[in-house]
Each structure stands twice: as structure tokens, then as C-alpha cells.
Amino acid sequence: MSNRRFEMHQYRHVLVRMRLGESDRAIAHTALMGRQKVSQLRLAASQHGWLDLGMPLPDEEMLLEVLGKSPSQAPFPSLVAPHQEEVTRWWEEGIQGTTIHQALVRKYSFQGSYSSVRRFLQGLEEAHPETTTVLDFAPGQMAQVDFGTGPRIEDAYTGATFSTWIFVMVLAWSRHLYSEIVLDQKVSTWLSCHRHAFEFFGGVPARVMVDNLKSAITRACYYDPEVQRSYAACAEGYGFLILPCPPRDPKKKGRVESGVKYVKNAFLPLRTFRGLGDANRQLRQWTLAEAGNRIHGTTREMPLTRFFQTERHLLQPLPDIPPEEATWARVKVHSDCHVQFELCYYSVPFPLVRQTLWLRAGQTSVRIYKEHELVAVHVRLTQPGSRSTLPDHLPPEARAFLMQDRQWCLTQATRIGTACRETIERLFAHRALDNLRAAQGIISLEHRFGSLRLEAACARAVAFDSPLYRTVKTILDRGQDQDTISRLALAGLKKPYTGEGRFCRDTSLMLNN
Q1: pLDDT confidence of 503, banded at 50, 70, 90?
Q2: Is the separation of the CB atoms in 331 and 357 below 8 Å?
Q3: What span, in angstroms and rounded, lies between the C-alpha atoms of 97 and 296?
């Protein structure tokens, strides 16, 4: 028997032909109903007296009551029926059909195919149809924002190929849109795209509905979402409210979802771009010429016309001074008294080591806060790996080491005396070692022994051709800076002894001493 479905008015039409005396064959030739089906209907009509010309034709409700209970219309039992409750629960939890079929095979050795599961789930969907509500917005009340995958662009000059994203903002009432091709979805990119969109529209909508991307929402929640601090500052500066889309419910922002698809399907195909700038120039021209002047499928008007005639005048005005596109980030202070942001390093006071701070990166400056207290300000760095260090942020020992460079050591040695400077110069002249610490150590001996004794010790060390820190310190510790050798060396006599040996001294000098 055919599985063709018939409406009640078709049954009534066949009954009329039967009452006019037409045979089953004649009715079947009209293609209204198959011959076997006509025979079944004639049998049912005879049993209920519907062929009697003195009786009125049955109405559709009576036909449905009689014909709807025909055993021939009863469906075959589903193979999934024994597991109906469990499969229904899985379906309500959003588990897809293939996973349900695999679970039935794994747990119950289910013999049916995936088609059996699919038909059963279709029956559930028909029994529980999903209903939706169209959200209406007043002019200037709402804009919806989203990202979509952009084209791969090859730079005409460098030959490099890179992936892109398409930022789209749609005004919910007029459907006028702004789109821009960008390289990433960073917070700074997200903020700059908003600024470009508001300047393109010439105003700011009252609310902006966004998806739960990390650049906008740090914690997605139906009731208590957490907004990214940088985006919250942007919203405050421009005067709009952020409306996060409920998690896993993109239909709430269907207008921008459709806008992204429209840009990807209508603009991107069959186009070539010489670079990112060329792609955005073409996209802006297309937005004003093609997208803005099309007849929208829902409003049946041109988005650009609706925008200029009505919505443009109801947007909030742009601020006189655009808010700075500043990015906030939580950073931890490393043991070297620096924090890292976008592969650049900025110093903070050393007592804050191992603490977590807030960093605010503007276009030209970086500010670091402990709670609400400003603890450091730096010029914004752009070269990855570069470092901005303020000497006051370092611990005293590190600060002293950095400040006491070679030039400082030479200056201090000149102040102490000629022999001290010669000792430092000979240390710095070493071909293999960087003797900065040794030079700093020699200069530091002044605090303990005084400049006169240090100068005499350096003269003795130079006289014996041993300009080393340990030599100078040993001379001072033993008091040898006060003997005749040291005094003669200090007076400018480079060789106060005779003999072939390098360290052999004149016996007369030894006796006199």
C-alpha cells in the first residue's frame, strides 16, 4: 500500500465522485488516489452511510476520526523504543545522534542502524518543536558585534601569506553594517575596531551585544558575566552598555551572525587583495555601494536609506575626545623586578617581587598599579624582548652595581690618586676578563682605609706588577702600604730595588727599613 499522505479535503472530493456514480477505476485515472486506496475508502464509506445521497457529506473532523484510526496507517514500532526514556534524556541534554547510536551499540548491543536513531530523534523534535521570538529594537538602541574567519592574504611586496579575521558590527534596526579585516582578536584590536565602527556610523548605539570572546567577556555566565576591564573602560568612555550573549545561544545575535555570513559569501569570493590595506579599502567601498544599497530580505528596504533617514539621528554623539584605547592585564612581578606584557619587560619597585599587579597599556605609555596605587610608569615598548628599567626600582646592591660602571670607577680612581687610576686602567685593559667588579672592589676599600692608604697600596701593587683586588686588599690588611717600598713607589720610583730577580730587593733598603 502506498505511503502517500492525503488531506481530508481530498477524501471528501473522492467521496463526491463516488456519490456521482464513478467507479474506482475512473477515480484512479484522475490521479486523485490509487485504486487500492479508493477501494478502502469506498468500504469505509459504505459502512458509515456516506454514499447515501440523502445523507450529508461527513465533515473533516469525522473523516479524521474514522480514517485516522485505520490499521493501515499505524507506524512500525521503532527499534529504539525499548530505550526510549534514556535516549530522550540524552536528546534533551543536547547529545548528537551519532553519539547516541554509538552508546546504544556499546551498552545494549543495539542492532539497529543510525537511521533508526535519527528517525526516532526526528519524532522527538516534531513532538517538541523549538519556538523562537523575533526581537525588535528601536532605532539607535542596539548594535550586534562578532568576528568571522577572513581570507588568507598574500602581501604583494613581501610575498608573506597570513590569516585574517573579519570584524562586523550591525545596527539592529537599520541593518547597516561596518566591517573590517584584521590580523587577530586581541583586546587592542577589539577596541580599535569599535572606535572605527563608531566613527563610521557617526555615533554610538545605546547597547552593544557581543559574543563571549575573551577580548570582551572574561567569564561567560547567563546571569553574572564578567566584562574584560579594558572593554568596560571603552564602554564607559563612549557611553554604551555591554550586553553579553547567553552562553551557547548565538541565535540571540542572529543579525550579526547573518551579517558575517553575508560579508563572507557576497564580498570575499572572486576577489584578490594586494595586502591588508587594499582588502579594507575594497571592503569599505563594497559596504557603502553594495551592502548598503541592497534590498534587505527582512526590512524590504535599503539599509543605508533606513540609516540616513532615521537611525543616524538617534545614535548617541561621539565624545569630543575619544577615550584612549588602553589594555588592562594582570601581570606577575618576576624575581628580576620586571613584569612582562606582549613580550616586553617593565620594571617595578623591588618590594613587589612575586606579587600580582594590574598593567594598563596605552598607545604611548604603560602604567602599573597595585590595586589602585600607581607604582610605575614607562614608555610603551614595541620591539619584542626590549626592556625598560628604572634604577630606583632595583634593590640597593643591584642599583649600586649598575651605577658604578667603568666611567664611574675611573672618575673615582682619578679623585683618589694617580696610582689608583693606573691600577683601574690596567684592570680594564685585561684582554680576557671584564674586571668591573674588581675595580668596584678596589674603590670600595676607600671607605675602610681612606684615600691616602688606598693610593699607597695601589702604588705598591703597580710597582710589583700585580694590579689585582686581592693584592691591594692584602697590602692594606698587612699594613704594607706604610713601608719604604710603598713610599718610594708612591714618590714615583718605579724600581726601588736592584738585582736579577724580579722580587729581589736591595739589602741596604731592607736594613734601613
Answers
A1: low
A2: yes
A3: 36
Q: Answer yes or no: is 233 within a domain.
A: yes
Number of compact structural domains in the chain? 5
Count CB atoms within 10 A of the CB of residue 228. 23
Of 504 and 71, the one with more pLDDT: 504
| pLDDT, tens digit (0-9, with 9 covering 90-100), for 390-438 | 988 988 877 766 677 888 899 999 999 999 999 999 999 988 888 888 9
- 245-278 pLDDT per residue, tens: 888 777 778 889 999 999 999 999 989 999 999 9
Cell of residue 346, nine digits: 617593565
Other C-beta atoms closer than 10 Å to the C-beta of 436 total 16
Domain co-membership, 188 together with 227: yes
Please tell me whether residues 181 and 201 are part of one structural domain.
yes
Task: Mark which of 357, 373, 394 sits at the end of a domain.
Answer: 394
pLDDT of 498? 45
In this prediction, residue 52 has a pLDDT band, given cuts at 50, 70 and 90, of confident
Cell numbers describing residue 13:
472530493
For residue 406 the three cell numbers come to: 667603568
What phi-psi label fits residue 479: left (phi over 0), alpha (psi between -120 and 50 degrees) or beta?
left
Please report, for residues 40, 198, 221, the alpha-carbon distance to residue 207 in angstroms, rounded to integers and kept in the order given: 63, 12, 18
Q: Hey, how many other C-beta atoms are within 10 angstroms of the C-beta on 161?
A: 9
- Per-residue cell: 488: 718610594
Range of the domain at 260: 142-314
* CA 146 – CA 71 distance, rounded (Å): 53
Give the residue-averaged pLDDT of 11-22. Answer: 87
Between CA 302 and CA 175 the distance in angstroms is 9
CA 232 – CA 239 distance, rounded (Å)? 10
Flag whether pLDDT at 91 surpasses 80. Answer: yes
Does 456 share its domain with 507? yes
Cα(413)–Cα(423) distance, integer angstroms:
9
DSSP secondary structure string for all residues of 439-467: HHHHHHTHHHH-HHHHHHHHHHHHHTT--
Q: What are phi and psi of 352, to 5 degrees?
A: -95, 10
Q: Are 375 and 349 in contact (CB under 8 A)?
A: yes
Structural domain includes residue 136: no
| CA separation for the pair 429, 433 (Å, rounded) | 9
